[in-house]
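Lay summary. Proteins are chains of building blocks that fold into shapes, and those shapes determine what they do. In this project we predict the shape from the chain. Here is one chain we studied, written as its sequence of building blocks.
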Amino acid sequence: MGKPGIDFPGLGTGLAILRDRKLLLYKRLKAPEAGFWSIVGGKVDHMEPAAKAAIREAEEESGLSIGQIEYLCTTEVLNEADHQHWISLIYVTKDFSGEASLVEPDKLSDFGWFGRNELPQPLSAFAEATIAHLSEDEFR
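And here is the predicted shape, written in a compact code that computers can read:
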């Protein structure tokens, strides 16, 4: 049958979580883009609405409880280095409770809240696309 993103384009989702004009980013340990800073997210499961997948993935990766989310953009990443192809629906929220933590240390090595002028490097293609779509009012 094959693997999404490797044998055929995968459908993913991501969530930009904002607090005090800062974006929550995690450093990835696994492909695609291992070693890069990215928003939380992952694969959309069969028969799972993408928005629900974004909330599920965000809660699994961050330990936060996510409330309302809004659609932000769609991005397509063809990562030649990892031989992966993903199309992702990206959402945004400021509605959450709890404190972010490192819940999945086998997948993510570090995290932090970053303003537009203090972003860590390197940024994943998903994070770059998300940041490009965030308004100045949301994220400075």
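What the prediction tells us: The longest helix spans residues 50-62.
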